[in-house]
Amino acid sequence: MKTPPLDLQDDQRFALMKFKRNVRDVLKPAHDDIYLVRWLKARKWNADAAEKMFRESLKWREARNIDDIQQWNTVHNLDPYYPYGFMGFTATTAHPFVIIPLKDLDVIGFLRTLSKGDLVRAVVKLIEFHVNLAHDYILDISVILAKVYEANYPCMLKKVFIINAPAIFTVAFNVLKKFLSSDTIGSVKIMNSDKKKWQGAILELVDPKILPKHYGGELVDSNGDSMCAEKICYGGKIPAEFYLTKNPSMDSISAEIEKIELEKIETEFNAVISKENI
User: What's the whole-model pTM score?
Assistant: First the structure.
């Protein structure tokens, strides 16, 4: 889909010209104006600061072979367990529209199946493909990912709606805020279970024709499924035979989760994400 033209002020155009001149020795065909503007926005239109950030990111990409990351795969195919669905593009702004239903995400399964490094790499692979808790281990990974995102994927998000998030998410997000830019924080909207409020907010940005009926839109699967399972992977339990090794620290987390399940405390936790083009 054709993206809207850049609408820049004179000083912003000057900053873009300076930035392009400063980094002309490392520019690639994919580094168009829309891509470069993201780095300027992340550094408040300071061309020198944007250049420093951009060059550091290029070094990071080269050191980790990010340009070829789509060729890398985990030992086991975990695609059926990633909750994710690309729904299309918003009609007016051409932003990609993605739904990530986290209710059935097997967090413990992923932590048992992947090393910390591979887990971060798997998330980076997902970010690259479409360019994105209270326990110390989980929070550590979240901080790593927050730093990676801010340093290498600036100003990518248009808006994130966190729907029906458990109270613990707010606690974890408050910790992560110090690693996120003001632009990223401003893109995140945490909403309660009041459907009238969050459905209205989503429909202000998203055409109901590409929003599943389950979330207040008009879209259904060919079999009438309002959750659109043909387009959205809802995750599921990762087989135990995929686990790397027995991890005692994970056992304690698993016990807590099982306790919650036995008490029949159910939380639907969905993230609706639209990535920004500029």
Answer: 0.59
